[in-house]
């Protein structure tokens, strides 16, 4: 026998003879389905907790449509969901840290507007729903800017909705 064949025989894993006993996968499937359901619930709870925020990925991977998944596919689904939950948690924590920094900036703007000339903080940056922004501006325009009179103004909210303009030519009669 050649040395290559001997090495291949040494590397092959001996398999147990087939005994004809059917393996019961029900317990493993039940456990994996419970883990997948738990991870999906965590993902949904994270979505609800982060509701006004946008831009976070909360989608659940779908492995090829409705069908009965094999044990390996269930394990892959569980692992993918666990990674997705971890990514969503990290993104939410990063967003919360950014919002906390913007809140601190807003407090400093309100205390010392002169040090934060022309700085603007929006409600979206604070994680709050709706429109609006705090903006440090000079009081009384150019005169206030020259005199050093700075103030923080809160915008009135969302811009007015603009519908379609009426056309210059009247519609033809039918």
Structural class: mainly alpha
* Beginning-to-end CA distance, first to last residue: 96 Å
Shape: elongated
Largest sheet: 3 strands, antiparallel
Beta-strand proportion: 5-15%
Mean pLDDT: 79
Succession of helices and strands: HHHEEHE
The gyration radius over C-alpha positions equals 31 Å
DSSP strand count: 3
Share of helix among residues? Answer: 40-55%
Provide the spatial order of strands within the biggest beta sheet.
Answer: 1-2-3
Tally of contiguous helical segments: 4
Uncertain regions spanning at least 5 consecutive residues: none
Oligomeric category:
single chain
What can be said about this structure in brief?
The protein has helices at residues 3-11, 26-49, 71-111, 141-147; strands at residues 120-122, 133-138, 150-154.
List keywords for this structure.
174 residues, three-stranded antiparallel β-sheet, single chain, mainly alpha
Task: Provide structural commentary.
The protein is mainly alpha-helical. It has a domain at 30-58 and 71-154. Helices cover 47% and strands 8% of the residues. The protein has a three-stranded antiparallel beta sheet. Helix 2 packs parallel to helix 3. The radius of gyration is 31 Å and the shape is elongated. The protein starts with a helix and ends in a 20-residue tail after the last strand.
Task: Record the SSE blueprint.
Blueprint: H1 3-11, H2 26-49, H3 71-111, E1 120-122, E2 133-138, H4 141-147, E3 150-154
Antiparallel strand pairs: 1-2, 2-3
């Amino acid at each position: 026998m050649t040395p290559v064949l001997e090495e291949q025989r040494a590397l092959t894993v001996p398999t147990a003879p087939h005994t004809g006993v059917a393996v019961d996968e029900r317990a493993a499937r039940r456990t994996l389905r419970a883990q997948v359901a738990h991870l999906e619930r965590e993902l949904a709870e994270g979505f609800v907790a982060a509701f006004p925020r946008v831009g976070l990925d909360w989608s659940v991977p779908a492995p090829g449509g409705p069908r009965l998944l094999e044990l390996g596919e269930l394990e892959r689904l569980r692992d993918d969901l666990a990674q997705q939950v971890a990514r969503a948690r990290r993104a939410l924590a990063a967003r919360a840290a950014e919002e906390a920094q913007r809140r601190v900036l807003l407090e400093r703007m309100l205390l010392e507007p002169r040090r934060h000339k022309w700085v603007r903080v929006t409600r979206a940056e604070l994680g709050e729903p709706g429109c609006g922004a705090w903006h440090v501006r000079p009081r009384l325009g150019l005169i206030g800017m020259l005199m050093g009179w700075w103030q923080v103004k809160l915008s009135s909210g969302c811009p007015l909705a603009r519908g379609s303009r009426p056309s210059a030519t009247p519609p033809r009669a039918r």
